[in-house]
Design goal:
The chain is mainly β. Strands 1, 2, 3, 6, 7, 8, 9 and 10 form an 8-stranded antiparallel beta sheet that branches.
Amino acid sequence: MAHQFFQYNPTQIIAVWGGVPIMGFADGTFINVEFDEDSVAKTVGAQGAVTATMNAHRGGKATFTILQGSPTNDLLSALAASSRPSNAALIVRPLFIKDLNGTTLVSAAEAWVLKVPNTEFGKEVASREWVIDIARLQMHTGGAVR
């Protein structure tokens, strides 16, 4: 087997929601993207017959973990607050996440703030966890580019 070498640099991950660059990520996992449901459901009958049902639902969620001092918190808070009044429309914007180290790409035409983070303070700098809900998630989980 040939020698393989790959590189990863977390500063080469870009995320933008509706023109707002998501910056100031916390240590550890700072972006988590997942589908709401499995792509295929398996049903097994009494005699062992198996049916695989394709799931048409392609919704998902993106969770961003951001340091409490990041100005991204202000921008996301303002957008989330403008969706709160009873007469306000939901702020729906496109989402784009790209790993410039490789080929991973996440996109969605319609995404919105699902959950505003808890606010907490302590001796150490805290993080804020923003959850963005996605109507139809497009995701390619790729590898690294040398």
